[in-house]
Write a structure and sequence with these properties.
Layout (H helix, E strand, L loop, with lengths): L1 H39 L6 H15 L5 H13 L3 E7 L9 H13 L4 E7 L5 H6 L2 H6 L5 E4 L3 H4 L5 H18 L4 E4 L11 H15 L31 H16 L3
Helix pairs in contact: 4-10
Length: about 260
């Protein structure tokens, strides 16, 4: 009986040792596997690395701009002090589907509100004479924008003010902004093209020459529109030809996005 009990104790002891060995081997194996996974997993992206990546992308977006304007964006990106970007339009209302609202949305998406603040100043049915008489130019210039993108009221002046007066008034309007901020970056663009217009395109040509003489970039988005003598142009205007259609707003927007935000 003693011999049987001794054999049972020996068997129990050996079993306990074997079970313990198997348990520890499994535990060590699991720890080793976990360590391997941890070492091979991609390290998390640090916040500083992400910020550098965002800054590089934003700087790249300003590549199409004149050097002095691109430098303003670079400084704003580095210092996180937003530029004030004023957009002045005389022919477009500020609904969500028109180019000014969509352009603002694009600028904020590309650069963020830490880099740029967009101020839409939309004065429909105003002439250059109205802007000066009502002192709207003085009111807006007091905001001291860093960048000004303006339609110089060519279309509303057409046949009312006269192109020589339009150019003179435009110069006075721009001088108001320059007096408040001598380092302002100004960009001039035409209003939308009109179907089979006779005198209006000639006036736009004179505004383009005025811009060149003043050393101001003239953003000729017309080059992306259909020929203004073709019937295709009609689909780019609304039903009474008094504003761009959705297609017209899109082609205008794409031009500006490419220039200011590096979009293709």
């Amino acid at each position: 009986m003693k011999r049987v009990l001794l054999v049972f104790i020996i068997i129990l002891a050996v079993g306990s040792v074997a079970a313990g060995k198997i348990y520890w081997e499994k535990k060590i194996s699991a720890q080793a596997s976990s360590a391997t996974k941890t070492s091979t997993a991609a390290p998390p992206v640090q916040e500083s690395e992400k910020n550098v990546f965002d800054e590089k992308n934003r700087l790249k977006s300003a590549n199409n701009l004149p050097k002095e304007t691109a430098a303003k964006f670079a400084k704003a990106i580095k210092e996180k002090k937003p530029l004030t970007f004023m957009v002045g339009s005389d022919t477009t209302e500020g609904t969500q589907k028109t180019w000014p609202a969509l352009f603002k949305e694009e600028l904020l998406k590309v650069y963020s509100d830490q880099v740029v603040k967009v101020d839409l100043e939309l004065y429909k049915d105003k002439t250059t004479k109205d802007i000066l008489t009502e002192k709207i130019d003085q009111k807006l210039s007091m905001k001291k924008p860093d960048i000004l993108l303006i339609e110089p009221f060519i279309l509303k002046d057409n046949g009312v003010v006269g192109i020589s007066n339009t150019l003179s008034n435009t110069e006075r309007i721009l001088n108001s902004f320059k007096q408040e901020n001598k380092d302002i970056s100004i960009f001039i663009q035409p209003s939308y093209p009109m179907y089979k217009a006779k005198y209006y395109p000639k006036e736009v040509t004179k505004v383009a020459q005025f811009s060149k003489d003043q050393g101001i970039p003239f953003l000729n988005h017309w080059e992306k529109w259909p020929n203004d003598q073709s019937k295709e142009m009609l689909s780019f205007l609304n039903s009474n030809k008094s504003a761009p259609s959705e297609k017209g707003n899109q082609v205008w927007l794409q031009y500006l996005n490419h220039y200011f935000a590096g979009e293709n």
